[in-house]
Amino acid sequence: MTQRYLILEDGSVYAGNGFGAGATTTGEIVFNTSMVGYQEVVTNQIYHNQIIVYSQPIIGATGISHDSYESILPTAKGMVVRDVATISKNRQRSLSLDQFLKQHNIPGISDVDTRQLIRKLQSVGTIKGSIVDVADDHAFDQLHATVLTNQQVAQVATPKPYPNPNTGYNVVVIDFGLKHGILRQLSQRHCNVTVLPWNADAQAIISLDPDGVILSTGPGSPLDLPESVLEMVRTIQERIPLFAVGLGHELFALANGASMTRLGTAHHGPNHPIRKIITNDIIYAEEAQEYVVDSETVDRNRLITTYLDLIDGSIQGLRHRDYPAFSVQFFPDGAPGPHDSVDLFDEFMEIMGTREG
Question: In what helix (H) or strand (E) does residue 127 lie, and over which residues does it extend?
Fold first, then answer.
């Protein structure tokens, strides 16, 4: 391994050993507290243009397997870990993590004090950084000069419709940076799925005569998407059962008059307990959010809060009072786990069945 450096825009320097690709990259630094599922995390398009710091100290021990991709072409900017494993006894492994990152030109850096780095991120919030060969003035000048795009959804979402055929309910998925875990859950329920681009209008969706519509997860700020997306959501929720996840949840809230605020420290990981209000049950689910619905702006005549994060009280789920439309901020598909909330897909199936009847 060759020595490489993680540099932050506040002047901090973290020395470590490089693995994966030898590319120099710049992105937002975020940390993820998942104990397992590093492959699902790095292939999740929500991490587009971000460098992921893993709190789990040893990463790579299970290699890369065919059934754990959340996107075909991951677009994360890098991985930062304490230790990287080079040996795996996982029989499903097809590649090592090092080989996988090289294939996708994603650099990694190990032997970094990730505990200290995560403490910094908890205090300063999301910060820009680079993985470089030399931590000199030129590298910092390049870091400060780099402007990260706010067009993440357009860069990662499908440009053209495509099918995921089956024989059950006809479901349209709007791709804002789709996790494959959503498609897996729909496939297990035999749904006939059509995936549409993020900018599909309501008429294009209605013309497919869907039994239900899912607004997918995705990267970036919901405030960077045009008003036309919110108009689509308002039209669809009145006519077709709607289930919104992650970024889709944020768009659902905006379309119904709520406002968004940026979290001081982003949520990335499954460690937050979430209360299901109607039953008072406590669940755990993978979260990956930098924005949250401002509870003071929720129109209680229109929306009901269904889930709350018990650590910071943030809204994690909403339901419309008048239409068969609901949303969750977290990832209910369990990729990676926990699987406490996969029943939300069954609930969506029931709503489609009720409408059909």
Answer: strand 127-132
Residue 134 · residue 2 · CB < 8 Å: no
Residue spans of alpha helices (H) in the chain: 38-42, 97-103, 114-124, 137-145, 152-156, 180-188, 202-206, 227-239, 247-255, 343-356
Going from the C-alpha of 88 to that of each of 70, 82, 92, 104, the distances in angstroms are: 21, 17, 10, 20
Cα separation, 160 vs 113, whole angstroms: 43
Q: Dump the DSSP string for 285-304.
A: -BEEEEEEE-GGG--TTTEE
What is the C-alpha to C-alpha distance for residues 97 and 118, in angstroms, rounded to an integer?
A: 22
Q: What's the rounded Cα separation, in Å, for the pair 310 and 290?
A: 17
The per-residue pLDDT for range 279-315, each reduced to its tens digit, is: 999 999 999 999 999 999 999 999 999 999 999 999 9
Report whether 236 contacts 210 (CB < 8 A): no
CB atoms within 10 A of CB 281: 10
The answer to whether the beta carbons of residues 293 and 318 sit under 8 Å apart is yes
Q: Say if residue 103's pLDDT is above 60.
A: yes
Rounded Cα gap, residues 42 and 74, in angstroms:
7
Could you tell me if 25 and 47 are in contact, meaning their C-beta atoms sit under 8 angstroms apart?
Answer: no
Q: What percent of the chain has pLDDT over 70?
A: 97
Helix 247-255 crosses helix 227-239 at what angle (to 10 degrees)? 80
- Residue 357: pLDDT band (50, 70, 90) is very low
Q: What residues are paired with 261 via a beta bridge?
A: 292
State how far the Cα of 320 lies from the Cα of 332, in Å rounded to an integer: 19
pLDDT tier, 92 (very low <50, low <70, confident <90, very high otherwise): low
141 Cβ neighbours under 8 A, 6+ residues apart: none
Instruction: Please name the residue that has the structure tokens 């993590």.
Output: 97
- Give the residues across from 327 on adjacent strands: 244, 318
pLDDT, mean over the chain: 94
